[in-house]
Amino acid sequence: MPKKIDLRVVKTRELIRRAFLELIVEKGYEAITIQDIAQRSMTNRNTFYLHYTDKKDLLEIVTDEVLDELTIKLTAVIANETDQLSKSQAIIRTVFEHVLEHSVFSKAMLGKHEVPRFHDKMKQIIHHIFHQVLNRISAQTPDSNRVPNDFLENCLSSLYIGTIVWWVEHDFHYSAEQMTAIMSEVITKGPIQAAGFLGSEQV
Questions:
Q1: Which residues contact residue 130 at a Cβ distance below 8 angstroms, ignoring those fewer than 6 apart?
Q2: Percent of the chain with pLDDT over 90
Q3: Could you tell me which of 67, 94, 86 has the C-alpha nearest to residue 160?
Q4: 41: which of 15, 176, 181, 199 fits an S-S bond (Cβ 3.0–4.6 Å)?
Q5: Residue 141 to residues 101, 150, 178: CA-CA distances in angstroms?
Q6: Residue 85's CB: how many other CB atoms inside 10 A?
């Protein structure tokens, strides 16, 4: 028989995690103490240590959960979409929607007090997804004159992370749908044509 979930435990962890992320946004990870988290979450230090070893443990658990969820979503996109263009757009949309869904987390990890190494963790996930997509495209349409995949993977993942950071810093000014459309335009046309410097007849 499955173990019954204690809703009080779930609620306490949610309060602690929410307080933790809000404090990172306000003052940065390094400046936060366990007492700060306890006070903000309206718990106490003993309660905190019942659930987490220290703030590093809390950070790793929260980060892994959000990134694992993103990986599962992106893996499903890779498996379900057959058309490569549709797949690329679905990848772009999925990441933006996930970042917005976890907006407080995103601001904590990627905002002005960004957490060290999170940037790299997220980039690795996006890099790996583009690696899979580009390898499949290469297998289907081999071309010796194609730009090397390893260059494209790094270029696209760096562009994506930089754009997400900009979006977070501007408080999600554009919707996830708008960001998907803009990013798709830049990726498919290239920045020069997307900016309007060249007409389609000149490209």
A1: 91, 152, 153, 156, 157
A2: 62
A3: 94
A4: 15
A5: 36, 17, 30
A6: 10
Mean pLDDT over residues 20-41, rounded?
A: 96
Q: Write down the pTM of the prediction.
A: 0.86
Is-contact 99 167, C-beta < 8 A?
Answer: yes
What's phi and psi for 199, nearest 5 deg?
A: -75, 155
Residue of 160, 150, 153, 94 lying closest to 122 (CA atoms): 160
Q: Do residues 184 and 92 touch, judged by C-beta distance below 8 A?
A: yes
d(CA 111, CA 165): 7
Q: Residue 188's closest CA among 79, 71, 86, 80?
A: 86
Distance of CA 90 to the CA centre of its chain: 14
